[in-house]
Amino acid sequence: MIIVKQTVHFGAGNIGRGFIGTLFSQSGYHVTFVDIAEEIINKINDEKSYHVTLAAEKKETITVDNVSGLNNLHQEKEVIKAIQHAAYLTTAIGPNILPKIAPLMARAISERVRTTDEKLYVIACENQIGATDLLKKEIDAHLEEETKERLADKVYFFNSAVDRIVPMQDQDSLDVLVEPYYEWVVETNESIPPVQGMKIVEDLAPFIERKLFTVNTGHAVIAYLGYLKGKSTIDETLADEEIVKQVKETLKETGAYLVKRYGLDKEEHECYITKNIERFKNPYLNDSVTRVGRAPIRKLGPEDRLVRPTTEAQKAGLPYTNLAKAIAAALLFDDPEDEQAVEIQDMLKENGPRHVLKNVSGLDEDSEIIKEVIRQYESLKG
Ligand SMILES: NC(=O)C1=CN([C@@H]2O[C@H](COP(=O)(O)OP(=O)(O)OC[C@H]3O[C@@H](n4cnc5c(N)ncnc54)[C@H](O)[C@@H]3O)[C@@H](O)[C@H]2O)C=CC1
Ligand SMILES: O=P(O)(O)OC[C@H]1O[C@](O)(CO)[C@@H](O)[C@@H]1O
Fold first, then answer.
1. Are residues 23 and 171 located together in one domain of the fold?
2. 126 CA closest ligand 1 atom index
3. Which atom from ligand 1 is nearest to the alpha carbon of 166?
4. Is the domain of 266 the same as that of 277?
5. Does the ipTM exceed 0.95?
6. Are residues 155 and 36 part of one domain?
7. Residue-level pLDDT at 1
8. Cβ distance 53 to 167 under 8 Å?
9. Probe ligand 2: pick from 165, 183, 209, 224, max atoms within 8 Å of CB?
10. Per residue in 256-279, pLDDT tens?
11. Which of 101, 136, 309, 342 could form a disulfide with 254 if both were Cys (CB 3.0 to 4.6 A apart)?
12. Which CATH number goes with the domain that contains 347?
């Protein structure tokens, strides 16, 4: 009897289908996608495969098969059953959603550790430092003490960093357009079943900080400055030399912090910055500034891509004026379609930028950073 390797992935969206699900399928796994989007789940079950196309001049396409779908809103029993047989349990749903799926994962894990000693590896693939730690904390909160004791040597939680630009897709199709580049870094000392394209490291911190504070900080600066200048896509924004200059200046600031903190080679890091700005210019992605700037409350959080490098630079005695400008530009992102942008604009109208920076970004009201951001905010507002 051939035993098919199984994996369960929460979030059949851009990264789920276009990156993590693809790598598992290519590694010989059957991928069960779990999502609340009924139409996507039905399509996955009807079509049983989809295409992933590389956004490049030569549009290579691969077929991803061996996939099925479950809706966690009304197929809880089936999701729990699928997790009983999985080697991996991964997510790409947005860090804010992790607490919502934790109760169901906790039920599945409780049942699993009572019936099998097979190992399960849980990995959250989100743009956030310590996303799997957060998921574990939420799962733990729903586990009995007795179950928690059984987890040792059976259920493992690994933090990870995921890097692949996957823009908004045609919502009527399962097919996904992705950039050719990708990097998936997972932190563990365990020997785990191989997954094509998964890079294992002992210490994720330099990888995730380098990625978050270069790729994501840079991307966010482009999105917010582009939005302010009325641009609609990232590549269109990068045709504006003034913005390119501003992105480079900002990444010099995050770079100085990263080089100092992790002892990175300065020249190598400069090449990493240049390589990423080239990635952003990809004209085949047609990536919108509103997608990249989405959810500004999350992006202005104390540990996220804008505020964390700023506070770290200040602590290290390094410059942060350009980062302060990026934070100011994020405050001015008023996309009416984005719930968090609307919320920030309401907060700004009612209580002003100091209040937002204190309550959303966790900055000290009297700090030099707040003063600099407000100065930049007033100047950008014109
Ligand atoms: N799109 C990109 O280029 C990249 C995204 N990421 C990260 O990957 C994560 C996912 O991003 P995308 O795939 O772009 O988002 P997406 O919006 O395309 O996909 C998210 C999926 O999660 C589903 N979902 C929402 N709530 C759910 C719930 N309670 N239970 C199950 N499924 C639920 C949605 O229906 C959607 O299909 C985010 O953390 C993002 O920051 C990381 C690197 C690249
Ligand atoms: O997915 P988030 O965290 O909302 O932010 C968008 C960012 O994530 C990415 O989708 C991929 O890293 C980038 O395109 C962008 O910097």
1. yes
2. 39
3. 3
4. yes
5. yes
6. yes
7. 58
8. no
9. 165
10. 999 999 999 999 999 999 999 999
11. 309
12. 1.10.1040.10
